[in-house]
Amino acid sequence: MCGIVGYIGNQKVSGILLNGLKRMEYRGYDSAGVSILTDGSIETIKKSGKVAQLEKLVDHTQFDSTIGIAHTRWATHGEPNDINAHPHHDSSNKISIVHNGIIENYAILKKNLIEKGYTFRSDTDSEVLAVLIGALYDRVKNMEEAVRYALNEVEGTYGLCVLSVYEPDKIIAARRGSPMVLGIGEGEYIVASDAAAIIQHTRQVIYLSDNEMAILTRDGYETKTIKNEKTTNTIHEIEFDLEQIEKAGFPHFMLKEIFEQPDTFRDSFRGRLLADKGNVKLGGLTQAEEQLRKAKRILITACGTSWHSALVGEYIIENLAQIPVEVEYASEFRYRNTPLYPDDIVIAISQSGETADTLAAVYETKQKGATAIGIVNVVGSSIARSTDAGIYIHAGPEIGVASTKAFTSQICVLALIGLYLGRMKNLSQSDGKRIGAAMLEIPNQIEQILNKSDEIKAMAKKFTKSRNFLYLGRGYNFPVALEGALKMKEISYIHAEGYPAAEMKHGPIALIDDNMPVVFIATKDEIYEKVISNIQEVRARRGKVIAIASEGDNDITNYADHVIYIPNTVPMLTPVLAVIPLQLMAYYMAVELGCNVDQPRNLAKSVTVE
Ligand code: F6R
Predict the structure, then answer these.
(1) In 303-399, which ranges are E strands?
(2) Which of 232, 247, 310, 535 is the most buried (most CB within 10 A)?
(3) Is 1 in the pocket of ligand 1 (CB under 6 A)?
(4) Rounded CA separation 472/531 (Å)
(5) Is the C-beta atom of 409 inside 6 A of ligand 1?
(6) C-alpha 303 – ligand 1 centre gap (Å)
(7) CA of 404 to the centre of ligand 1 (A)
(8) Residues designated as active site
(9) From ligand 1's centre to the CA of 573, what distance in Å?
(10) How many CB atoms lie within 10 A of CB 602?
(11) Of all protein residues, whose CA lies closest to atom 4 belonging to ligand 1?
(12) For residues 450 and 261, what is the distance between their CA atoms, to the nearest angstrom?
């Protein structure tokens, strides 16, 4: 949510900043801006809209400067217009900042500053921080101190970069609750919300911690807490490659990521699944092994798509390990005094590893003395670093705002955890082997579904006039119904609801008429017949039935208007296959309707605010 980048080094900065913004645009695209230090003054160019709009205004020949900061915004305070765009300046235009996060006490700070004669131009909370730093500089005449004092006064969260004409060869960065990664290059430093903006320059990075500042000059960098205590940081290596954050010939990141799923699913179990032994090896859980062995209850918490995979995980873990599992939205978990005991395990699932509510749920878990385990994609992210143990899903960077490959990889890891716990308890080796063998088949089976993309595209075209969709599934496929509906609404803006199929008759059935497409996930399992009865109920009311069905099920053509077949697997892995046609259907529908698939309106990839 908001992407920020700052650069100091030996190359012309304007192109570097714009490139960095493009790499992070999925974090927010309401407005964009740059501040470049040139000839003793700060040149700021900012514009509502996407980075492409800003790029038209930046004349690279105008700037020889090698230091600057930039921002791409997801609006919280103040509408997304030119004035509210970042960077923001202090009252005297000598200091410029870019900020990701929320300054919660901005109103009182602003009132105090206005009373002292300082002036404001925008409606944003971030400008208050800029003006506050300026006011403090007026007093202490030292940028580092001014920033430090300001950060001790503000409440809320920040990822921050500060540039000033007072100390022209310095960028000060800081973090509390919003990610900041510092790239250490040859004679250059680049600091950003996301390693994607850094990798072109260097693979060597430091992940700043909460309440930590980095002071970057042309000669080196220092890190300190905002209480002025020196800190030391481990230098990490960025694990992904540049190609992974490019479209590789696909028209959209979302389509690329859908098509990556055979590989990403395989990467999630690679080196962990011991299929011939019916077991798994999960190094990331070693530190929590004892707690897992004696766990009486598991709580899984997450948001959005990750919450849907959590629901699949609940069914898998209860089935394989016979441990009671509850699933809760992280936003509810954190505020409702959930009872937690030292023997409880809380699993936090997050693609970005930065979702504010999920991170807060992890803190709450640890505060109450339970064990927190992360299932995270982004290496070095806040959730990955705050949990007691964890497993990376290894899906590689997910850039499309609508989550796809993370969902299937999360289910893969949840199935591995189910096997791990199951084999610790009563799950037989032969059952473990059967599930392991099924898991090995999944990448090829996803490939087979992807080969039907033209068929799915043709079907999607038939429904572009529909304004509502219902998605129904039971058992393991109920969360798939929720996920299919979420994909449809977030990228095509068509209203869609997911329901457990049998719940339909308790209300949603009233919506069904001959204009209502109903997507059934009706794979062959022990409740197949029940789902067929639900299909009949829709047919009787002239609803249009789209069925995701198991290969070989010829009967279903008697009940459904359209059938997409998926290969057979064990029921607990069906969601991984059943979701693929639904991802493709939402994608093709959105493209057909002319929607911006990778940057749907009002959304951002990493939700770092509450
Ligand atoms: C939907 C989507 C969101 C995220 C949610 C949680 O396509 O992407 O619903 O799943 O914001 O994000 P993470 O997994 O990063 O915590």
Answers:
(1) 325-329, 344-350, 371-376, 389-392
(2) 310
(3) no
(4) 9
(5) no
(6) 6
(7) 10
(8) 2, 605
(9) 21
(10) 9
(11) 304
(12) 9
CA-to-CA separations, 56 to 18, 64, 160, 379, in angstroms, rounded: 11, 18, 25, 34
What is the model's pTM?
0.90
Residue 350 CA to residue 348 CA, distance in Å, equals 7
Query: Could you tell me the CA-to-CA distances from 10 to 187, 206, 526 in Å, in that order?
Result: 6, 20, 65
Q: Give, for 384, the enclosing helix (H) or strand (E).
A: helix 382-386
Q: Is the CB of 402 under 6 A from ligand 1?
A: yes
Report the DSSP pairing between strands 344-350 and 371-376. parallel
Residues in CB range of 511: below 8 A, 6 or more apart: 468, 470
Distance, in Å, from the CA atom of 73 to the CA atom of 26, rounded to the nearest integer, reads 10
The token pair that represents 262 in the structure block? 């055979």
Pocket lining: 381 vs ligand 1, CB cutoff 6 Å: no
pLDDT along the chain (610 residues), means of 10: 92 94 86 93 93 88 90 82 92 96 94 96 94 97 98 96 97 94 96 94 96 96 97 93 89 97 97 96 94 94 98 98 97 88 96 94 94 95 95 95 97 98 95 98 98 97 94 96 98 96 87 92 92 91 95 94 97 98 98 92 75
Residue nearest ligand 1's atom 11 by CA: 304
| Beta pairing partners, 468 | 495
Q: What are phi and psi of 165, to 5 degrees?
A: -80, -15
The two tokens of residue 428 are 């037989």
Q: Is the CB of 311 under 6 A from ligand 1?
A: no
> Please, what are the domains in the chain?
3-238 (3.60.20.10), 247-450 (3.40.50.10490), 452-610 (3.40.50.10490)
SS3 assignment, position 158: strand
- Any atom of ligand 1 within 6 Å of the Cβ of 338: no
Sign of CA dihedral 43, 46, 51, 56: negative
